[in-house]
Structures are given as C-alpha cells and as structure tokens.
Specification:
By secondary structure, the chain is an alpha+beta fold. It is built from two helices and eleven strands; from the N terminus they run H-H-E-E-E-E-E-E-E-E-E-E-E. It has two domains: 35 residues; 147 residues, Porin (Beta Barrel), CATH 2.40.160.20. Strands 1, 2, 3, 4, 5, 6, 7, 8, 9, 10 and 11 form an eleven-stranded antiparallel β-sheet that branches. Strand 1 and strand 2 form a beta hairpin.
C-alpha cells in the first residue's frame, strides 16, 4: 500500500509539473548521460601530410623539388571544454638525397573554436636527429553522419612546421615549411 502511494505521488508530481512521465524519464536519462560525458574522452586521427613549400638555409624548395610524404597518427584526450591534448607520431619519407625516413614526436594542444574550426600548437622532436621545433596549425573538420561508423569526421589542416637543426660539427639550419594534412578522426 505504501509503495503504491509513493508511485502515485511521483506520478502526480510529474503530471503537475506539466511533463509526461516518459519525458521526465528521458530527461533524467539524458542528464545522467551528460554527467558521464563530462569526463575526458579518448579519440584520435590518421591521415597523410604533404610538405608543399620549405624555406631553409636561404633556399626555397617545393614538393616537386623534394618529394616527401608523412603519415600522421594521433591520440587525442579531450575534456569537457574546448581544449584537447593531442599526441601525434609522424613517420615521413623523403624521396630525395639519402631517401631518409624520419619520425617526429609531435605533442600539442588543440583549441576548438566551434563550427568545425580549431587552432593548435605542437612541439616537435625528430627522433635520432638534432632537430626540434614547433608547429602552429589551423584545422577544419566535417562530421561523418553515418551511424555506428568508426570514423567521426574528416578534416583538412594547414600546418607551418618550424624546425631548428643543430648538428654537431655542421652548420645550424632553420627551416619553415607550409604543409597540408588531411585525414579522418575517430
């Protein structure tokens, strides 16, 4: 008898508030879901990178002069705000000269501006080379509207890698590159 009166009291309170019981249950479920989403989320991206123009040591080269391609893969941790931490690994193949393959460790912060736009700044550490630097970026993404898809969006990004090479016993060089990065995020 007591349980029935409690159920009736909840029902009366819900009806007095003007919201149907099903709607009240949905809103409490969406509130619980929103609370769950407030914690950090894990995502990432994969893509390819083309260094279009590079200026280094007083010379400017283009992709046609020094063909190269990179394959950035990143892991992203995002909180409830617009800021995200993204750790990117960029293996890059350079098809000229020694045909060298490099790996750049590229941690950084990405700030979402809204409407699919983001800006960021990454640190850059080239493995097994005396090269460090930073990369400012501008990113635009478009959502993939397919339900249950592994990939959530595709993106295009403009990068401006700045690198400082300080080899022992050789002249120091500073390089600035304009690069385009495109891919999908998950």
């Amino acid at each position: 008898m007591k349980k029935a009166s409690i159920v009736l009291a909840v029902l009366a309170t819900t009806l007095a508030g003007g919201a149907p019981l099903a709607q009240a249950q949905e809103s409490s479920a969406s509130q619980a879901q929103a609370k769950e989403q407030k914690g950090p989320t894990l995502g990432g991206h994969i893509g390819f990178l083309l260094p279009l123009v590079t200026h280094s040591g007083g010379q400017t080269t283009s992709l046609g002069d020094a063909p190269a391609v990179g394959f950035p893969t990143g892991i992203t941790v995002k909180g409830s705000g617009p800021m995200a931490f993204d750790f990117e690994f960029v293996p890059q193949y350079n098809a000229t000269g020694t045909r060298q393959t490099t790996l750049t460790l590229h941690p950084g912060l990405i700030y979402g501006l809204g409407h699919g736009w983001a800006v960021g700044l990454r640190a850059a550490f080239v493995v097994d080379q005396p090269t460090v630097g930073f990369t400012p970026l501008v990113n635009h993404s478009w959502p993939i509207k397919r339900k249950n898809s592994l990939f959530k969006a595709y993106f295009v990004e403009a990068d401006l890698p700045v690198r400082f090479s300080r080899p022992v016993g050789a002249p120091a060089t500073n390089a600035v590159t304009f690069a385009m990065h495109t891919g999908v995020s998950f």
